[in-house]
Amino acid sequence: MTRQPTIRPIRPDEAEAFRRMRLRALAAHPEAFGNSVADEEAESMAKVAERLARGDTFAGFFDDEPVGMAGFFQETAEKRRHKGLLWGVYVDPAQRGTGLAGRLVDHALAHAAGRVEMVYLGVGIENRAARRLYESRGFVTIGVEPHAFRLDGRYVDELMMVRFMPGAPAPNGDWRAILSSP
Fold first, then answer.
1. What contacts 24+ positions apart, CB below 8 Å, involve 145-151?
2. How many structural domains comprise the chain?
3. Does residue 1 lie within any of the structural domains?
4. Residues 86-139 pLDDT 10s
5. What pTM was estimated for this model as a whole?
């Protein structure tokens, strides 16, 4: 049986290991993330550790080295606290195809349960593997953000997706019909 990474929150004292993985992700797949390598490098290690202290950034670890991640952020404004964002999902190339990405997303969704009614995400339209993963976890497309990122003189469009959490109230109206009407 193949050894599986352990999934757990990334601790503030692991900020440097987190940043190494994050920089690998941003360099390898700049079209998949809103931040650039320069953005990440400009953030202080103290700020990275502060973000990790919230306990809602998860990683798959082999020993002490993260090999995949998924983050969750709950909105804080009074009228938006019922929503959360799944962000930064990444798996090192050697771990792709092992189910780690699905396990990380499942872990983030379990963390979100009881905290929010819905989880949003954005995914590049051309990233079919990620779209299939999110759809398999109950996310549905609710729109498109054209030109979400500008990268090397070209634009990347993102699908906006949502997953209503178990027990959440039904959406108002037939929003799917509205989205598909001319």
1. 148/34, 148/122, 148/124, 149/31, 149/34, 151/30, 151/31
2. 1
3. no
4. 999 999 999 999 999 999 999 999 999 999 999 999 999 999 999 999 999 999
5. 0.91
